[in-house]
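Aim 2 progress update. The chain analyzed this quarter is reproduced below.
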Amino acid sequence: MENKNKLETISNLFEESEIRSVWDSEKEEYYFSVVDVIGALTNSNIPRNYWSDLKRKLKQEGSQLHEEIVQLKMKSPKDGKNYLTDVLDTKGVLRLIESIPSPKAEPFKMWLAKMGND
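Predicted structure tokens:
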């Protein structure tokens, strides 16, 4: 996917966690930062490491989710620069949520459904 699409980064708050997302107007789909989703769902101090371990596990299991990962440039909350970031569309995020044991999973699914309706 090229950045020629009018991609806009928007901030969404989920229980005080910022979840970076990008709108792809051509596909009419949001893409969400996987690391941000993991940070919102887990109590991991380093969600990037959690994602690295989970991604390796998904690949070993032959999960389709691993094949749906896309990389898009997103602004880093740390230094404000744009970096390639692993992202998933809404369906991919729903599958990701199923891979993460979390009491926040159900509210997160509801939040995604609301975003889809807005």
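Residues 1-7 have pLDDT under 50 and may be disordered. The chain has five helices and five strands. These observations will guide the mutagenesis experiments scheduled for the next reporting period.
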